[in-house]
Design goal:
The chain has 271 residues and is an all-alpha fold. The protein is 75% helix and 0% strand.
Length: 271
């Protein structure tokens, strides 16, 4: 609106933060608390954005569409065929709908999934991957077992469950990067400084991870992880790399889950 556009850049940013903050906070209610009040907060964020900045409203609507889609299905580690199809379909739509609307309705090319960047990973990037393994090795067993949250994931004693759990953990990890980093973070960066856009996406990201099982003091791990993934994507501009980081961490998570349920299977952790 004209009244907002004549304000100083700092004041305009403060105004825009109101609707974006509401959308981000709605993720805490929808995913973190499982409270339907989140839909009202989400709608309020979009309505407020319509009065403050129409371009922001259009992009927040894409994020909101994805959030509503994934909130419509139970987000847990149920590995039955029916739930895998249901949750998998919702996660796919949550990425496809914002991309399709952005590309073919808005006529934008903002949401991208850069796989082949043509850049080689520097030594520091490879070193970071090794650091992720070490961090996961020392933190994940302590977190999962001391809190008992490993029980949010099924026991992988049965071979079929073992492989479904492995594939499910990795599939959700890839989806996290597609929606929270390549979609949500990318859209928010059009309106906010990178650091602020990163915080806003990390709130939704870590709220989603809470619902799928990372509870107790899990946000102390997931929120910094979400921030690091956004920052890493900003630096590398590579979906391939952030997915590699995420799947490396998730592989350690998978091994820790197996040991938490069956201590004799993989006695490779110190805890």
């Amino acid at each position: 609106m004209t009244s907002i556009s004549t304000e100083s850049p700092r004041t305009a940013l403060s105004w825009k933060l109101v609707p974006a903050g509401l959308v981000s906070a709605s993720g805490v209610l929808l995913f973190g608390a499982g409270n339907d009040l989140g839909y009202g907060v989400l709608a309020l964020g979009l309505v407020t954005a319509a009065f403050i900045d129409r371009a922001l409203m259009r992009h927040l609507a894409l994020v909101a569409a994805g959030m509503v889609i994934i909130s419509a299905v139970p987000l847990n580690a149920d590995l039955s065929t029916q739930h895998i199809v249901l949750m998998g379909g919702a996660l796919a739509l949550a990425v496809l709908v914002p991309w399709l609307v952005s590309r073919f309705v808005y006529g934008e090319k903002i949401i991208r999934f850069p796989v082949k960047t043509g850049r080689k990973w520097p030594f520091t990037a490879k070193l970071y991957l090794a650091g992720v393994v070490l961090l996961g090795y020392f933190l994940l067993p302590v977190y999962l077992i001391s809190t008992g949250v490993y029980q949010n994931w099924p026991d992988a004693t049965d071979p079929a469950i073992f492989w479904r759990l492995f594939l499910g953990v990795n599939a959700v990890g890839i989806w996290d990067e597609l929606f929270f980093i390549c979609t949500t973070f990318t859209l928010l960066r059009q309106h906010f400084p990178d650091w602020l856009a990163n915080i806003l996406q990390a709130v939704i990201f870590s709220s989603f991870l809470w619902e799928i099982g990372y509870q107790s003091w899990g946000p102390l791990l997931t929120f910094p992880f979400a921030l690091l993934q956004g920052y890493t994507f900003k630096l590398t501009k590579s979906l391939t790399y952030v997915v590699a980081v995420h799947l490396t961490f998730d592989f350690v998570l998978f091994l820790a889950l197996v040991q938490a349920h069956n201590g004799d299977w993989l006695p490779i952790f110190l805890y």
